[in-house]
Amino acid sequence: MTQVTVCITNEERSSERLDTFLSKRISILSRSSLNRMIKAECVLVDGKTPKPAQKLKAGQTVVVNLPPPPGNDMPPEDIPLAVIHEDEDVIVINKQSDLVVHPCPTAPNGTLVNALAWHFMHRSSGSLSQVGAENARPGIVHRLDRNTTGVMVAAKTEFAHWSLYEQFALRSTRKRYIALVHGEVVEDSGLIDLPISRHPYDPIKGGKASQTGFVVRERYEGFTLVELKLFTGRTHQIRVHLSHLRHPIVGDEVYGGRKLKLLIERQALHSCLLSFSHPTSGKRMSFSGAAPEDMARTIRLLREFRMVSSGGGGGGEAEVDLSVVFGEEALEREEAS
């Protein structure tokens, strides 16, 4: 581990929270990663184990034991994967929750990259593109947050990697998300046009231009199911934008959401549709992924006991087939048999 020592001088602001203080000085780690490090006792204040919210004082010394950066050696790990499509160039999966996409200082293993390495070795053939391998991101052309579920694509060859990378950069891919949010959204559809930054407690302050389109799909008492389209790709963009509208995502405690105990205890955000041009053939390909059971079960219960309206009047703007996302077709077949 690398040890970093910071002495708090009289010139620095007093009464600043420890996690805020560290997030401004250790930019390579996210605030959530730093919080996990504090809770794991990798941070000391005057030789004692602190809490993330501890207020600092002038004259104190903060010692941070940084974990080593992830290396190029990413061992295969037998982690279940839901593979939607695979060929010689790409692999498309429906990512589960609690799965980090690539190794990082706070998650050096147990990631999607490790799982894909095992998959290619034992169930398929080929390997991830080595583009990005020096940063522990081989084959990764886009990401989903740890607890965001849904459709992702990874590249198996360098040519495919650069082709997909360009498509994501030029916004020629098509991505749609479904989110369950707190409150009943009034507008049937709209565009959230607010800048986003990496400021630890004000992600709107001094940020870059960011746009998210939304369409209401279903309203329930106290909740709304919305379909979302990204026009830009900022970190946590959907989560920040919905929180700013005072309709945070259910389960997203970082941005003001609340868990629904015994139903869903992580952010109810699912990447349900991804479309891109195949790197080799040029053929347009579209993939849909069913939502995991915790989110599907929550929606079924809301429909049964709290349904207000179906369809927000967004007309042709809605593109997601909810019967695919929430498995209604399979459920109907099961009930009929």
From TrEMBL:
An individual GO BP term: enzyme-directed rRNA pseudouridine synthesis
Transmembrane regions: none
SMART domains tied to this protein: S4
Record Pfam families: PseudoU_synth_2, S4
Record domain RNA-binding S4: where: 16-75
GO molecular function: pseudouridine synthase activity; RNA binding
Reactions accelerated catalytically: a uridine in RNA = a pseudouridine in RNA
Keyword annotations of the record: Isomerase, RNA-binding
EC number, UniProt record: 5.4.99.-
Family annotation (Gene3D superfamilies): Pseudouridine synthase, RNA-binding S4 domain
Active site (UniProt): 145
Superkingdom per UniProt: Eukaryota
Family: Belongs to the pseudouridine synthase RluA family.
Role: Responsible for synthesis of pseudouridine from uracil.
Protein name in the entry: Pseudouridine synthase
Organism: Guillardia theta (strain CCMP2712)
